[in-house]
Design a protein that fits this description.
Blueprint (H helix, E strand, L loop, with lengths): L13 H9 L7 H13 L21 E6 L5 E5 L25 H14 L3 E9 L5 E10 L7 E7 L2 H11 L6 H12 L5 E7 H5 L13 E7 L17 H11 L8 E3 L2 H8 L2 H7 L6 E10 L5 E11 L6 H38 L8 E8 L9 E9 L5 E11 H20 L4 H15 L16 E8 L4 E7 L5 E3 L5 E3 L21 E4 L5 E5 L1 H4 L6 H13 L7 H12 L8 E8 L7 E6 L5 H15 L4 H21 L4 E7 L3 E8 L18 H9 L2 E6 L4 E8 L1
Antiparallel strand pairs: 1-2, 1-5, 3-4, 4-5, 6-7, 6-10, 8-9, 9-10, 11-20, 12-13, 13-14, 14-15, 15-18, 16-17, 16-19, 19-20, 21-22, 22-23, 23-25, 24-25
């Protein structure tokens, strides 16, 4: 290792000041003396008071060093003579980045460049340095700009004392809700006490299963983390691998001696081979052929009885045995980590449950008159949890298709429960014939009801401010009726026209205070065959680097590039992958709908006056149409009888002109009779003395399904007949 001589008194660079301060503490016995002190100072030997200048040097625990870097981040000078830095090869002319683990190089490089460009220091970063033998040293790293007229950087390194490292490790562990990342943080922290660290977790932790109340017998272990990153011998268990059954059994028995989980220390290679008893197990658990000692530390979840979540392993050379104080520190760190592991397990289980609900709500198939494709990318596991984004598309009984997208406030099970309730309620109301704005009014009341003091707020969750957008496509008129409650506008791409967001009125969202509530508007627009409509949630278009309008514009450009013959599902995946390619903190949801509609020759519409002869006139017109379509005679008779009954009922109970429409679908015929009345036809019990209501029983017996759809001018009674 290169070391500078004592700097001149006229120098004022940070490096020279650190080196000057170190001069009176570093032992002057040469490299041999420094190496002799390395082991003691590295493993918590008691620190002695610093000797004054000129005093005979003693064995000190010096933990401070300095490295000078040029503009290319190469080492120009170093002062790492303290024993604690033994093995850190900071040679002059080498890159400082060579001292770092590969995974830390991008972050540290960015920090070094920032200090070079701005001159602002970066202090107290907890960082690992690689030693020549493959082990690592944990330091507190600070980056300072060199004092003018010099150029470059001064990097100060403070080897972290044990208690300080405990605090830093506890701060780092638990910042993620991902099981693997939590285990990796623990393993990296444990590496300060040894040469190799591993974390093995019970398989139930990985699957999110309940761990309390389970049998306290054998546990099935799976390796969750292993540091440092290097090439391991054949047969050694690496992350993702299951430990051999015999190894899991031995470890579970060892750490649960006398029904109390406790550390187990095996001091040397000979003892390891004797305990494991099998060359295969030795290869699976021992990280190399050198003589090694190991401490197995159980991760215990407090409870009655306590539950072992897994085992942490710290390996080091047998000539450096574990001291009692070190074992206490190790067990303290592992104990503090256990609840973070269990929290990640619970989060994983909740994440899986909510994700299953999300998947269940996704559209399954497209219809004859519309083609749909959906993409759902959940928030990454280390985020607050899967959100309440949902999309759905489903055929309505009267031949139309509903497209629904919503974004419930919050994450986790509370948001999932509200999401499922709103989704099912919207589907039921739309299937019952309510218009999109009427459905949103009911959803608005539901959100307000869920948020009252006795249910929502008492449960610690509020859905106020959730958004929803409902579009209903009519395949006969080729028009879409759309209403929005505070949701981002859908994007419409016409076959031969521009692409852009649909103009929808602003709204505060669902559950707003009564004084802030606005009426829900219905926006109707043409969507001829070949049109594409994109509904989405904000996770798809939000980007900190651009405005939300630019994000929607990028979405419109991508949807406009979809060719009419492109498979729609693949196109939806490509759009989502382009706009949201990486890890996201929010759900990404997209629903693409390609309008097909009915051909002109598959529909027929007539307007008739509400007179006594309307039923006969309707039968004549419909009969001629069915002969033209070559419908079977038995089906034709059923259709004529149904149309006659519906028209007669409209003439009797409604006013104004009637509209009769017949649609040839892929599975049968759909008959519709519209009028200006507001009364809802109901199927009575059909008692012998009743003088009315028999017509609906005839309709009910001849059709596969019938119902009512409300319009601005009245209602439409529809009936589906198989052919």
């Amino acid at each position: 290792m290169d070391s500078t001589s004592s700097p001149s008194s006229s120098s004022s660079s940070p490096f020279d000041m650190v080196s000057s301060a170190l001069a009176q503490y570093i032992p002057r016995g040469g490299a041999a003396a420094a190496a002799a002190d390395a082991a003691d100072s590295q493993y918590d030997r008691p620190a002695r008071r610093s000797a004054p200048a000129g005093a005979a040097p003693g064995r000190q625990e010096q933990i401070l060093g300095a490295v000078n870097l040029d503009q290319d981040l190469r080492i120009t000078r170093s002062n790492l003579d303290a024993p604690v830095f033994a093995g850190v090869e900071a040679a002059t002319g080498s890159s400082f980045l060579d001292l770092l683990p590969p995974g830390d190089v991008p972050t540290v490089t960015r920090r070094l460049r920032q200090v070079l460009e701005t001159g602002e220091p970066h202090v107290a970063r907890v960082q690992r340095l690689r030693r020549g033998d493959g082990s690592e040293l944990v330091v507190s790293l600070s980056i300072l700009a060199a004092a003018p007229p010099q150029e470059g950087l001064t990097v100060t390194l403070i080897a972290m004392a044990r208690r300080l490292h405990l605090y830093a490790a506890e701060t780092a562990i638990g910042t993620s809700l991902d099981i693997g990342e939590t285990a990796q943080s623990l393993a990296e922290s444990l590496l300060a006490w040894g040469d190799v660290a591993a974390v093995d977790l019970d398989f139930a932790v990985w699957t999110g299963e309940a761990v309390t109340g389970r049998s306290q017998g054998r546990i099935r272990l799976r390796r969750a983390a292993l540091v440092p990153d290097r090439a391991w011998p054949d047969g050694y268990v690496t992350p993702g691998d299951h430990l051999p059954g015999e190894a899991s059994r031995l470890l579970s028995q060892a750490i649960r001696r006398d029904d109390a989980a406790q550390p187990v220390v095996i001091p040397d290679r000979e003892a390891i081979e004797r305990v494991l008893g099998s060359p295969r197990l030795v290869r699976a658990l021992t990280p190399g052929d050198r003589a090694v000692g190991v401490a197995f530390l159980p991760l215990v979840l407090d409870g009655t009885p306590p539950v072992v979540l897994g085992v942490a392993e710290v390996w080091r050379r047998a000539d450096r045995p574990f001291e009692d104080g070190e074992l206490l520190d190790l067990q303290e760190l592992v104990d503090r980590t256990a609840h973070h592991v269990d929290l990640a397990r619970r989060h994983h289980r909740e994440h899986t449950q909510v994700l299953a609900l999300q998947r269940r709500l996704l559209p399954r198939t497209s219809g004859d008159t519309i083609e749909t494709a959906s993409v759902y990318q959940p928030a990454t596991p280390d985020s607050a949890g899967v959100g309440g984004d949902w999309v759905n598309s489903f055929p309505l009984p009267d031949g139309r298709t509903a497209l629904v997208v919503g974004d419930v406030v919050g994450h986790g099970l509370g948001a999932a429960a509200t999401m499922g309730q709103l989704s099912m309620e919207a589907r039921a109301l739309l299937s019952a014939g309510l218009a999109p704005d009427e459905v949103l009014e009911h959803l608005d009341d539901t959100v307000a009801l869920l948020d009252d003091a006795e249910s929502g707020l008492a449960a610690g969750y509020s859905a106020l401010g959730s958004t929803c957008c409902i579009a209903v496509y009519d395949p006969v008129s080729h028009r879409v009726a759309l209403s929005s409650a505070g949701h981002l506008p859908p994007v419409l791409v016409l076959p031969d026209g521009p692409a852009g967001p649909v103009a929808v009125g602003t709204h505060p969202g669902l559950g707003a205070e009564f004084a802030l509530r606005e009426p829900f508007e219905v926006h109707s627009f043409a969507a001829p065959p070949g049109s594409l409509l994109a509904l989405y949630t904000d996770g798809l278009v939000e980007d900190p680097a651009v405005s939300i309008d630019e994000g929607i514009g990028r979405l419109a450009d991508l949807v406009a590039e979809v060719h009419p013959w492109d498979p729609l599902q693949q196109a939806a995946r490509n759009v989502a992958a382009t706009l949201a390619p990486g890890r996201r903190r929010d759900d990404v949801t997209l629903l693409l709908a390609r309008m097909i509609g009915y051909r002109k020759g598959d529909t027929a519409t007539w307007r008739l006056p509400a007179r006594y002869d309307a039923a006969a006139r309707a039968r004549t017109l419909v009969s001629a149409l069915l002969r033209q379509w070559r419908i079977r005679e038995d089906t034709r008779d059923s259709v004529l009888l149904v149309v006659s009954e519906l028209v007669a009922n409209a003439v009797r109970f409604a006013r104004g002109p009637l509209t009769v429409r017949v649609i040839r679908t892929g599975h049968g015929l759909l008959c519709e009779v519209g009028d200006t009345g507001n009364g809802r036809p109901r199927l009575g019990r059909n008692r012998p003395l009743d003088d009315g209501g028999r017509g609906l029983h005839v309709v009910h017996g001849l059709t596969t399904r019938w119902g009512v759809r409300w319009t601005d001018t009245g209602k439409v009674v529809w009936a589906a007949i198989a052919r």
